[in-house]
Amino acid sequence: MSLIVGVDIGNSTTEACVAEVEGSGRAYLGSGLAATTGVKGTVPNVTGAARAIERALLRAGRALEEVDAILLNEATPVISGLAMETITETIITESTMIGHNPQTPGGEGLGVGVTVAFERLAARAPGDGPAIVVIAASVDFEEAAAALNAAAARGVEVAGAVVQRDDARLIANRLDRPVPIVDEVTHVERVPLGMAAAVEVAGPGRAVRTLSNSYGLATVFDLTPEETRVVAPVARALTGTRSAVVVRTPGGDVTDRRIPAGTLELHGERAKRTVDVNGGAEEIMAALRRVQPLADVVGEAGSHVGGMLAGVRETMADLTGDAIGDVRIRDVLAADTFVPREVRGGLAGEFALENAVALAAMVRTSRGPIEQVARALAQESGVEVVVGGVEAEMAVRGALTTPGTAAPVAVLDLGGGSTDAALARGEEQVATYHAAGAGDLVTKLIGSELGIDDRELAEHVKTCPLAKVESLFHVRLEDGTVQYFDAPLPAETFARVVALTEEGGMVPIPTRHGLDRIRRVRRDAKRRVFAVNALRALREVAEHGTVRGIDFVVLIGGSALDFEIPELVAEALADHGVVCGTGNVRAVEGPRNAVATGLVEAWGRERGPAAAGRSAAPAAEARS
Amino acid sequence: MSGPAVFLRLAPGEVPAAALRELRAGLEEEGVPCRVLPSGPPAPVAAPGAASPVCEAPASAPADAALLAHAAACASPVSVGLGLSADGACLHLPQLPPGAPLLSVSLHDPDPERLRALGHNAARLVAGVPLKELP
């Protein structure tokens, strides 16, 4: 009887399991998990591996000295990269619009006039035409209202106001004749004076109608057809807001231009195609399908995508000592997304939704310094370390310990950097495919689409269910049910959408998006990455490229622990008549520990690592 | 009978008028009515859910802003109360312990912006809008 430890060094986690092996019998005693240290397949992994082994042994109640062999997977470095290329940009030159949604605008209706500084209002004579008064934060609301009333009494027409403080209703309530007022305009000092302007405030629950309509703007400002074409983006940007200000400056212009995002050169083994990143994800992925199998991808120098691809290549070259020119990008995944960007030249911190393309890329090498890792681990542990077993084959073996599975089974490893498929065809052959794009890309899409810069927060949105804090004592969960609390919730969570962390914490999501919208963004991001990649990867490993021929698909890997990713993948595969579910390795581990278990399962059997593997014995002095 | 409103209780004696103005301005900007209760023993108003034992109003008008706010919250039909004394202003809910208001602003070094924001937040609790950060 021997005591064996299987170790799987993954991209983000290192897993170990301890088993007593006697002939074909396996008694699993415990398993452990630690964060991978360093890039998978490199010597710094030893620290994480030792930690995982220690934890597994602790749970098994055994000591390192009792271990007969450590089995290590043939871990090869995988470097993945992500880049976002914004392909449209809204620029307001000379500040022509303020379209934002202060919580509480004042008055109602449309006011058209010429912008006048509050201080100059007293000097204005009747007959000077209607005025749009621009009021800075230094002016108190009572003072402002009194001055507006006085001006109106003198016969000066006041058509509307633009206010810096959150004062619109306070002023409007004190006017003899209320006018539309837009407040919380942060950069009120940038509003050009003496220019034609329009202020519009819609009634409660409504949106502006004149300023969000190109012809409405043309009517208000008496525009020619040519000028109307120029202001169309203004109208579009103001759609759906409750209040808006448009100032017309002579050279003013809002442009909505497409940024040249560069090209991607996809080199297939037989064909080559150049595709414009501006074309979006669909075009890129269609071009990719046409050149499969992919040999390499090159991005245009100077573009984000080009920079990211070069960076991925460089990191891998550094790691393996290969020349940069020899490192090949083996897969890319493009996804259409949009990014809220602060409008350049805006006055109230307005955002415009810009189109963008997110791209994940991946390189892996067939050879890595795994022997060095094995030697270092043997040195560190004083135990013989055996490297061996094709990783995909081990994953299949491990996954097959899931109750209810039978060969031929396909394994989908949903990770952080890549989505990997392995299919055991017949006795000997295991087909594998590694698709770029997984959990990290989902986080990036969620972050960019919701305008969340904080990666940790985006990660929370990805992994946690949402709730809306409806009062300080209750929240409404995603499914509509209500949860009550005895102690008051933190004031900063009030009326916000929060992510419910596993530890019972509530992380407020500081956006104005409602729960439904955040949920939709989250699920769409997961679908665009995992559902797309699951099909892509399975097609590559399936015979004749038909997913229908596969009976069982077992999901493993960190992202298979997600509360909805397995369900979304299963949904995508349901059309193909595939039984798909989250793995439950050895009926206890869930989607974890598949490769480590596979290594132990294979050990000592004819195709196991002991037969084919290479072993690294600890140096004699280390053993003593 | 009165319509729904945030109640604001004042401490007996001189009222810090500037502070009162800011609190009321914050509520007005949000469009939520506010009723200022005179100082003096609280009227026996039955608030919805007044069965809660913490809602028992103290026998005599408390001088402390937190207790004033709590009594106001208990009396308010929308269960949100403000209290204002020479020392400070507090925002309170009936469910909280009287001595632990949700938010409070000291008047030792009066900051109109903070008082205005407190008024906003009283209204926002009623309106179900995320609170403003006190500057």
Automatic annotation (TrEMBL), chain A:
Alphabetical list of Gene3D superfamilies matching this protein: 3.30.420.40, 3.90.470.30, Nucleic acid-binding proteins, Swiveling domain of dehydratase reactivase alpha subunit
Domain Diol dehydratase reactivase ATPase-like: 275-602
InterPro entries, alphabetized: ATPase_NBD (IPR043129), DDR_dom (IPR030994), DDR_swiveling (IPR040916), DDRA (IPR009191), DDRA_swiveling_dom_sf (IPR028975), NA-bd_OB-fold (IPR012340)
Ranges where the DD-reactivating factor swiveling domain occurs: 92-254
Top-rank lineage group of the source organism: Bacteria
Pfam families, per database record: DDR (PF08841), DDR_swiveling (PF18427)
Protein name, as recorded: Diol dehydratase reactivase alpha subunit
TrEMBL record, chain B:
Species whose genome carries this gene: Conexibacter arvalis
UniProt-recorded name of the protein: Dehydratase medium subunit
Gene3D superfamilies named among the record's database cross-references: B12-dependent dehydatase associated subunit (3.40.50.10150)
One family name in Pfam for this protein: Dehydratase_MU
SUPFAM superfamilies: B12-dependent dehydatase associated subunit
InterPro entries: B12-dep_deHydtase_bsu (IPR010254), Dehydtase/Dehydtase_re (IPR003208)
Top-rank taxon: Bacteria
